[in-house]
Design brief:
The protein has 15 helices and twelve strands. By secondary structure, the chain is an alpha+beta fold.
Length: about 450
């Protein structure tokens, strides 16, 4: 590694991972219905079964072979890939499903619990995409092995496939995660960044959308290498300050650090069994360990919590959540363990493949802790005993940093329309190969 060849990086030793779930909406539908695996699958926003309105939110790679693309009208998609339910012959037909955002958010919450367990510095940028700073936790020597293990964990515990890019900067890590999709893993070490970018099409540079790519082509800039070597003043004259910025990205220069979006809304730890377990003691031991780990993590972050919850995954991927709210925020490891074990009691005799413990409704202020005596009588007891209703396949976690699907434009491989009006920051990133809600609402 040659850190001297990395001008404009946040830190010479920085290691950034970009995690992106392949065809996320389609992957969620296949997790719920494994018979969809390998089939041309189209998930439509504003679409209802049997209708022709709406737009394509994501298309599986099999559906893309028929020319179906994100943000395409469902009516046009149906011309290219007829709906199987309407056809007499299954050949050259596809399966269409409406968007089920509640379900997708529950799956995203599972993934992001894994990511937050891997690094204390995670920046969530959309429902299926995040950056992690793994400088201290992993470093360059273990980056490739770590990324491989992470992909395996996400696939085995959640049932979806992730592509991971690792690089010295955020912009390079994002490009790296796109390079070998689907199911890709690309590591770009310091000293290799300029060579990695050199021959890439210019529209693969972070912040370059289709309109800017066309305008760059008019200037004779076809590749990232061309952009890196272009006259910065000429670029600024054509594109403003953003011209200089995309040139820096093409040169592997990016001074941004991975920063979380404000304080976390919850903290959690989870762990899977090798095989589904019915033995009560084994489940209790797992929850005890997880509860202690979560309470310790909250303590290190200076967080108190008002809600304690558990997640119980029954075979194959049936997600159950239970939570109990307290009258006010506390920091009490024994209480977290006690509540978690009490909530687990409902699942004493049921097979479980995965368990998790979460604390939420976090308070990072320095106020006084609520008196635990209030739990033992009157309204306090009623509040402490309140258990949130469970939804079989819905987690209570935060699916995205903003608590909703991304409304920003996207610049993924199946992008449609110009996205260059957005600032070329990671906030403009969206779901690879699937349209954002903004494309349908704007």
């Amino acid at each position: 590694m040659d850190a001297t060849r990395l001008p404009g990086t946040a830190r010479p030793d920085q290691v950034v991972a970009h995690v992106d779930i392949d065809c996320f909406y389609a992957a969620c539908e296949r997790r719920r219905d494994p018979s969809l695996s390998g089939e041309p699958l189209v998930v439509g926003m504003g679409y209802e079964g049997g209708e022709t309105h709406g737009a394509v939110a994501t298309a599986s790679y099999e559906a893309r072979e028929y020319g179906v693309e994100s943000a395409m009208a469902i009516s046009e998609a149906l011309e290219r890939l007829p709906r199987r339910a309407d056809a007499d012959d299954e050949v050259d037909t596809g399966i269409y499903r409406p968007v089920d955002m509640d379900y997708y958010e529950s799956v995203a919450a599972e993934i992001k619990e894994i990511l937050h367990a891997e690094s204390d510095t995670v920046r969530e940028v959309s429902i299926d995409e995040a950056y992690l700073d793994i400088t201290e936790a992993v470093g360059w020597d273990g980056a490739a092995s770590w990324a491989s293990d992470l992909r395996a964990t996400i696939e085995s515990e959640v049932g979806v496939v992730a592509s991971v890019g690792v690089a010295p900067t955020m912009s390079a890590a994002k490009v790296a995660s796109d390079r070998e999709k689907p199911d890709g893993l690309v590591v770009v070490e310091p000293g290799e960044v300029r060579d990695f970018f050199a021959d890439l099409p210019v529209d693969e540079v972070h912040g370059v959308g289709p309109v800017t790519a066309r305008q760059l082509g008019e200037l004779g800039v076809e590749t990232a290498g061309d952009l890196a070597d272009a006259d910065p003043e000429a670029l600024e004259g054509r594109f403003g300050e953003r011209g200089r910025e995309i040139r820096r990205y093409a040169r592997g220069e990016d001074t941004r650090e991975v920063t979380p979006r404000g304080d976390p809304k919850s903290l959690s730890r989870e762990s899977a069994f090798t095989e589904a377990v019915e033995e009560a003691e084994a489940k209790q031991q797992k929850v005890t360990t997880l509860a202690r780990a979560v309470a310790d993590r909250a303590g290190r972050k200076g967080a108190r919590y008002q809600t304690v919850g558990i997640k119980v995954v029954e075979p194959p991927f049936d997600v159950n959540t239970r939570a109990r709210s307290l009258p006010g925020p506390v920091a009490d490891a024994d209480l977290v363990e006690s509540i978690a074990l009490d909530l687990l009691g409902e699942f004493t005799e049921r097979p479980v493949r995965k368990l998790g413990v979460r604390v939420s409704n976090l308070d990072f202020s320095a106020g006084e802790q609520v008196s635990l005596g209030g739990f033992e009588s009157g309204a306090g007891a009623d509040a402490a005993a309140e258990t949130d209703a469970d939804e079989a396949t819905t987690d209570a976690g935060e699916p995205t940093a903003d608590g909703q699907a991304s409304l920003t434009a996207f610049d993924g491989e199946s992008s449609a329309g110009d996205t260059d009006s957005a600032a070329p920051d990671d906030d403009a990133d969206d779901i690879e190969g699937q349209a954002s809600l903004g494309d349908f609402l704007g």
